[in-house]
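Check these lines:
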Amino acid sequence: GIQGSMGGTAMRAILGRLAAPPKAAHDALAALNVKTADAAGNLRALPDILDELYKKTSKMGDTTRSGYFKAIAGEEAFAALAEMLNRAQECLHGSRPAQGLGHGGQACAVH
């Protein structure tokens, strides 16, 4: 998994790129038909975005999926995005509780 300050740095990068996507991120999100903002222009809930990204990329090969994640999250944060998608699926769909601690004591809160 992603640990400590590296996780915080990656999370900031991912949130920033989802909130105001640069061209590469915008193009990748558009190709996947994933909207990061609601009708009012507000950032959608992160668990909803992650769930949609997971569903739209889960059947892709590793190389294709990684290419999308690099475009969306950037070179430094794409591995963290992949990890976040996997963790979100575990939290949202039952292998971890929606609130509290999951496997290994890692947080699994969904807001």
